[in-house]
Amino acid sequence: MKLSEFLVEIRKAVNSAANALTERNIEFFNKYFEEKRISETETVRVPKTVRMDYPMAADDGSIKMKRLDVPVISLIPVSGSRLGKATFSLDCQIDEEHGDVTVSFPKKVFGNAKNNCHLEFTVVPDEAPEGISTIIENYNTLIQKQLED
Fold first, then answer.
1. Phi, psi (degrees; rounded to nearest 5) at 74
2. pLDDT digits (tens, 9 = 90+) for 78-121
3. DSSP reduced 3-state for 17
4. Would you say residue 125 has pLDDT above 80?
5. Could you give the percent of the chain with pLDDT greater than 70?
6. Distance between CA 85 and CA 66 in Å, rounded?
């Protein structure tokens, strides 16, 4: 196999993993937001919420309950939403055939392979947008404002 073809296949595998994570993130978003029709032609996404009573100290020192509408997404941990990096390390045979650089992976025979090269490379993705984190932070701010009222 040509070395350039091998590297293209590695990149395809990394892209496939990133696409799978993107799909997972869309499913995550759909799980915590729902569509709300605001007109015949327009819908918006609104957070799924739970109504809960939150204990607060009154001026006299007693505890009273304050009712809050809390977006469910602000109550759950959010992690593992993007591919950080992929590092590949391998021993291989690099040759030149008809002007092309080729890579092969000879079988080891009694612990000795005909490898003449050790490759190690890292594929690092572009920075992911911080959309979900920003949304959660904004909802947490709104919850705090509800507590102050």
1. -80, -5
2. 665 556 677 778 788 888 888 888 888 777 655 556 667 777 77
3. helix
4. no
5. 84
6. 45
> Residue 148, exposed/middle/buried by CB under 10 A (0-12, 13-18, 19+)?
exposed
Residue 74 neighbours by CB distance under 10 Å? 19
Among candidates 29, 36, 72, which has minimal Cα distance to 51? 72
Q: State the Cα–Cα distance between residues 103 and 2, nearest whole angstrom.
A: 6
Structure tokens belonging to residue 123:
């594929």
**pTM, two decimal places:** 0.49
Burial letters for 117-145: b for 16+ Cβ neighbours within 10 Å, e otherwise? eeeeeebeeeebeeebeebbeebeebbee
Dihedrals phi, psi of 59, to nearest 5 degrees: -60, -30
